[in-house]
Each structure stands twice: as C-alpha cells, then as structure tokens.
Design goal:
Length: 512
RNA sequence: CAGCUCGUAGCUUAGUUGGUUAGAGCACCAGUCUUUUAAACUGGGGGUCGAAGGUUCGAUUCCUUCUGGGCCGACCA
C-alpha cells in the first residue's frame, strides 16, 4: 500500500557526499547571533538608511529557501533575509570560486548553509547580504512544500492539509511562520502566568504523574503496570489531591503545570493529554480566588496580546477586571425563564423534558441542574463570567456554602461560551470529606463510572488538619486557544494525538 | 460512536454526464539568464487518481466495504 505520509520526495544526495559536514565543523554561526541589534536590524528594517550597518561584515547561518536570479532567501529562527549570490562574486582564489559555484549548483531548498559577507541595500531597497563565502552545513533530502507569498500578503501553494501539518509539525513550522508565532505566543502566555505566580511567592512543585489511585477528578484514566512493584498504576487525571497534601504539609501557595491524561473522546477541544495549571492557597476562599483570577488574566492578556481587549473569532473579549458573577441557578433562570432553585428532582426532570434535554434515571438533582446550565446557559457567556455556587452533589471536594443550603463554594470561569477554570473553597473537614467519598462509592456501586475513587491516604492527610484553602484549575490549552485565536486544540499542541500511520510492517503485524 | 464530507505527482490543484498516452504551477534534473521579489526562459523526469471488491466491452469517474483526515453532534462535571 502506498504510504501517503512518507513526506517529501527523496532527492539524490550528491551535495551531501560532495560537501562533507566534517570539513566545515569550525563554522561558528554563533558569531552573528551575538549581535542582537544587527539581528533586529536585518530582519525588521527595509530600505534606506543602513547607517553604521552599511557594508558591515556579517556571518549568518540558516536554511536556503530558494533562489531567483542572483538572489536567494536564507531563513533562520529570526526570519528571512535575502542573499546576493551573483555569479563569480564569491571566493578569493579560483579554486574557491569553483567550489562555491559547484555548491550553489547542488543546493536544494531546505539545505542548511552558512554565509559570510557584507550588508548592503539592493536597487529595490531590500536589505541583503553580499555573499563572499559559502559553507555547506546540512542537507535536506526531502523536498519541502514551499509556500509563496506576494506583497499583498496573498499565499500560494500553502501547505495546509491538517493531517500532514500535524503529523509532520517540523515541516509545518519551517514553511508556515504563523504556526510558529502561535506557539511562541503560547510560551509567552505560560511565562506570564509563572511571572504572576512567582511574583506572589507561590512555589512551583512537581507531583506524581503515575498514581496508584487516579484522584481529584471524575474521568477514565489510562492504566499501566509497574513491574518491580507488580502493581497497577494510573496516569494522573488531576493533581489536586497531591497539591492539597502539600498545603497540609505547610506550604501556603503551591502551583503546578500538570500534564493530565484522560482516556476519553478526542475533538477540537479535547486531547488525551492536556495541560492544566492548578494552584492552592491557604487561608483564602473562593471570593479571594475570583479577584486573583481577574488580576492574573488581565496581566496575561496584556503580556500575551498587548491589550485587554482580545479578538477571538468575530468577538472581542475584554479581560479587564472585574468579571461578571452570577450563580448557576440565576443563570438558568435567566436563560430558561424558570426558577429551579426550590425544585426537587422530579420537577427538574420535567423542566429538562420541556427543553428537550435528554436525561436518564441515574441523574440526581445536581446533575440535572448541571445539564440545564450546560444546555441552556453556558454558550451565552462570551465575556469572562464567574458562574458560582454549584449543587453539592456535583462537587465532592468542595466546602459547603457558608449560607446557602445544598450548595458549595465553587465557581467556574466561562469565556467565549467555554469553561476555562474551575475553583473551590476547598473542603478541609475530614469527616465531611469521608462522607462525600462514601456518597461517591454508592454512586459507583449503582454503576456510575464517573464516580471518584476513595483515596485513603488523602483522607489521612486531611485528618492531620488542612487550613481553609482555595484552589483553582485552568485549562492551559484552552487558554492558549483564546489568546492565539485558534478554534482547535490541535493548533496549540505541537504534536496532537493522531491515529498512528499505517505502514506495511504494521499491516503484517496485524495479520500475524 | 452517529450524520455529512474529503483523499488526483513532494506541495497546491484542474479534470472526467464512464472512453485513446490524467493536465497545470511550484519543487526536482539539464541548460540559459543574473539587482530580482508569489510565479524569469527552454527542455526533461515524476501519478497503478487513498486501498480492496463489484457493475461494465471499458472505472480515477458509478456502487459496496475498508482506511486516514475534516466538520457537526454524542460522550468527556
């Protein structure tokens, strides 16, 4: 069977054999990289006024990205610069000139070269390097899918097949500069968050990815096995219970960027492994956490996008604090016209039916309210909005509300109609926590496969005493989607999960 | 997992109401050109039209199945 994903066509490797890399091992591309001013100048300034840089000797290295007449493009991590490689213009001795001419002839798009030369401006005003010396640094044996752009910004022959782009992200990154920008922005966002947290003396920690009991959330875990201990282990679905143990241990503010794994469906907002930022702060409640979230997101928007008014699709989202707050029951009332706050299970079921929401017998009061919110209200919250005070049944790790019966002190932050963060005043009463876990056990016995496992060691930790604490989890991938204006999680993950390529060998394995 | 949709050269694609050797641009190869700017000029190589089966005198085109994507649901608090 033909393998579509074999990549670019393989070329003859004459250049690779003709110009051995070992000959050029002394080429030092780092020299030019030290001159940061020059970098900026070369890549940002066009045209007149070369000033002190005119005829300045420089040394650059990067990918050869095509030639037209005597002009070639050199692409490095900073961008693209034009090279002037007029015939017979480089090399001092006749021998050198011959060697250069031969090299130029053998160059293919994608090859790595080093150049030495001087900065000058061409007739049309483009800053270029007049090449005096050319060095061969690395061969590209496969043809890159070269993308063309004209002055108006029109793109031709774009490398855009999502399957090929995700499977061969290395190619995507070389030929689609916007893709690289998206990932740089994601890193900027993460750096901004770290800066915010570190600025408040929060402690970044690492907790186990392999867990004997996959706790802290309700989700299907990936299961694996440890050979020496001969026990099953699970990839973490959340790190919540470990961070709370650290609060018990005496840290006041801990955080972790946690790669979580959930063995569930994949779509444009779900990948089997994804990143969540969780942080826990002692002696705080969920009101404090709302204020902190507002401050953090306002800063992150400024650092990442340079403004608090962020364009997402056809909407402008304002990250200017404070954000709107509304209780989940009021939200349902607002978007369904029905006040469900005093209703029992049967009445709620009737309301769901009225709005054509599918329900089943296993759903309790809390789940029904959650369904109503999800179906009727959630997508309306485009601007950042805290949905607060959830039913207790849905939140086995959350402290009961200080004044409202049957509710807990919890909020979810909705942005652009999606959940971005989930936070609680954490449950620190070990007796209550044990009862809640037992409720979950009953649910599990009734066949609810989403119910949480009981973690006895976590309960023991609580029994040693945990201060009042507020905690929050942010979906970092979804945040990155917002700040980079992407509608698919695959666009903010370097290597999104894909079905493996089917090779001849795999096919044979299947038969056996 | 359901519905819809797509798969033609390394990339981007044209095309066939079923009919001779499936066209093009870029890329690649051989030359020409050398201050250009998505795409200079001439010539060349490269495709079992995603795979298998069926209908047919004849299938890249129609049908079925499979396979890998995409969209939209379901699921995932």
């Amino acid at each position: 069977m033909k393998n579509k994903f074999n990549g670019g066509k393989l070329l003859a490797d004459e250049a690779a054999t003709e110009f051995k890399l070992s000959e050029n091992i002394e080429f030092d591309a780092g020299v030019s990289r030290e001159a940061t001013d020059l970098n900026t100048f070369l890549h940002d300034i066009k045209g007149e006024g070369l000033g002190e840089y005119n005829e300045k000797a420089v040394q650059l290295a990067g990918r050869f990205m095509g030639q037209r007449g005597p002009f070639a493009k050199l692409q490095d991590s900073e961008g693209v610069i034009q090279l002037f490689m007029g015939k017979g213009k480089y090399g001092e001795t006749e021998e050198e000139q011959e060697r250069h001419a031969k090299l130029v002839k053998l160059l293919d798009i994608g090859d790595f070269i080093g150049v030495k030369g001087e900065v000058f401006s061409t007739g049309t005003g483009e800053v270029s390097i007049r090449v005096n010396e050319l060095t061969f640094l690395g061969k590209s044996l496969r043809t890159l899918p070269i993308v063309k752009r004209d002055k108006e910004g029109n793109v031709y022959d774009e490398f855009k097949d999502p399957e090929l782009r995700y499977r061969m992200r290395y190619v995507d990154l070389v030929v689609n500069p916007k893709v690289k920008d998206t990932f740089l922005k994601r890193t900027k966002m993460v750096n901004s968050i770290r800066e915010f947290l570190n600025g408040h003396d929060a402690i970044e920690v690492d907790t186990p990815v392999l867990q004997p009991i996959p706790g802290g959330a309700a989700a299907r875990p990936f299961k694996t096995h440890h050979n020496s201990l001969d026990i099953p282990l699970y990839m973490r679905i959340a790190n919540e219970l470990y961070l709370k143990r650290l609060i018990v241990g005496g840290f006041d503010w801990v955080y972790e960027f946690s790669r979580n794994f959930r063995n569930e469906g994949m779509d444009r907002t779900h990948n089997p492994e994804f990143t969540v930022l969780e942080f826990y702060v002692a002696y705080k409640d969920y009101f404090w956490m709302m204020e902190t979230t507002e401050k953090m997101l306002e800063k992150v928007a400024m650092d990442t996008c340079g403004t608090t008014e962020v364009q997402v699709g056809d909407k402008t989202i304002s990250f200017k604090a404070p954000f709107k707050r509304i209780s989940i029951l009021d939200a349902i009332k607002e978007h369904s016209g029905t006040d469900v706050s005093e209703m029992g299970e049967d009445e709620l079921r009737a309301v769901c039916k009225k709005h054509h929401i599918e329900v089943d017998k296993s759903m309790g009061k809390g789940k029904l309210i959650d369904e109503l919110f999800g179906e009727l209200a959630e997508h309306h919250y485009i601007q950042p909005t805290f949905i607060i005070d959830y039913p207790v049944e849905m939140s086995p790790l959350t402290k009961k509300h200080r004044s409202k019966e049957g509710l807990v002190e919890r909020f979810e932050l909705m942005i652009n109609g999606k959940e971005i963060a989930n936070a609680y005043s954490e449950l620190n009463d070990p007796i209550d926590q044990r009862e809640r876990f037992e409720e979950q056990m009953k649910l599990m016995e009734r066949g609810d496969d989403e119910a949480m496992f009981i973690d006895q060691d976590f309960l023991r930790a609580l029994e040693y005493g945990m201060p009042p604490t507020s905690g929050i989890g942010f979906g970092i991938d979804r945040m990155a989607m917002l700040f980079t204006n992407q509608s698919s999680i695959q666009e903010v993950l370097f290597f999104p999960q894909m079905r493996p390529e089917k090779s001849e060998k795999n096919k044979v394995d299947e038969v056996e």
